[in-house]
Amino acid sequence: MTQSATLADGLRSTALARAWRDRLAIVGLCIALFVAMVVSLSLGSMPIPVSRVVAVLLDAIGIASDDITRIERGTVLMVRLPRVLLGALVGSGLAISGATMQGLVRNGLADPGLIGVSSGAALGAASAIIAFGAELSALGLWAVPIAGTLGAGGCTYLVYRLGTRGGTTDPATLLLAGIAINALSFGIVGILIDVADDSQLRTLMGWTLGAVSGATWSTVITCAIALAIGLPLALRLSAPLNALILGHREAALLGVDVSATARLVIITSAILVGVGTSFAGVIGFVGLVIPHLVRLGFGPEHKTLLPASAVSGALLVVLADLTARLAIAPRELPLGVLTSLLGAPFFLWLLRRREY
């Protein structure tokens, strides 16, 4: 066997071992997410033993248990489970959006909350509530998510265009454009808050702080549909995003349609962040922190980075929501405030190290 053949076999063996290691790590993250969700279902103002939570879940899928009380069933299935699932879905969407945006612009500071996606979604959703008012319920559950998605997509496209010149995206310009669009969007949201009535005001204020406490099975199903659309779209971007690591011009020379990739990233981010923000409000820094941490553990290969980020984002938001519920019980910390307290130091650390 020649030296080149031996080297090729060694590289294949290394790649295969790494692939199996990554799969096992993702399975481990899934197990950790499941455990975190069960613990979150167990803890709260009325603690329920984990064994009872499992019994309620088994009963819900047809494995009956005679000694389950009505209070336990209602607390787990109608109050806590929708909240936990919504947090997991929103966290997944934010992390996927952050990973794809960072890959597109080759900038570790790209985050749905920093470059206008989340603020655009909040602006669209807030505009729908104020514009339709009492008629909003007649428009159905989809009215607010559609408005949030359109707002997220519009702001993302505007920021991307402002930060791109001659086919090249400048990270500093992109970040500054995102800051400006964020300020403009939240300024308009502030005006909407000023003209809102009492019921609208409570909803809008909840959005600005972020929370999944208002979760229902309808909102969970809507976010699940958004994730079912957005995740496959994101996975289709794995190869183009890997090529973009080399640069936009180099990726174009390799046959990547950079403009089409950018449009698909914007559509994906708009769907995932727009729908999630419409129901959970602005939850910052998840899309910044998670892709960075996952990239440190799994490397820059997007075929692995994207699903690992999805599971890790869900795990972070589920744990953050549990902490928000228990930290100052019986009151709750706003979820968006807690993620900002966690994410802002990480953002400053990135600036300090200049690893973007």
Task: Give a quick set of tags describing it.
single chain, 356 residues, ABC transporter involved in vitamin B12 uptake, BtuC, mainly alpha, globular
CATH architecture: Orthogonal Bundle
- Per DSSP E runs of 2 or more residues, the count of β-strands stands at 2
Task: Give the mean pLDDT.
Answer: 83
Classify the fold: give the CATH topology. ABC transporter involved in vitamin B12 uptake, BtuC
Quick rundown:
By secondary structure, the protein is mainly α.
General description of the model:
By secondary structure, the protein is mainly alpha-helical. The chain has a single domain (80-353), classed as Orthogonal Bundle (ABC transporter involved in vitamin B12 uptake, BtuC). It contains 14 helices and two strands. The protein has helices at residues 3-42, 50-60, 70-105, 117-132, 143-162, 171-195, 198-209, 217-236, 238-244, 248-253, 258-280, 286-298, 302-326, 335-353; strands at residues 164-165, 168-169. The protein has a two-stranded antiparallel ribbon. Strand 1 and strand 2 (168-169) form a beta hairpin. Helix 1 crosses helix 2 (50-60), helix 3 (70-105) runs antiparallel to helix 11 (258-280) and helix 5 packs antiparallel against helix 6. It is globular.
Helix/strand layout:
Blueprint: H1 3-42, H2 50-60, H3 70-105, H4 117-132, H5 143-162, E1 164-165, E2 168-169, H6 171-195, H7 198-209, H8 217-236, H9 238-244, H10 248-253, H11 258-280, H12 286-298, H13 302-326, H14 335-353
Antiparallel strand pairs: 1-2
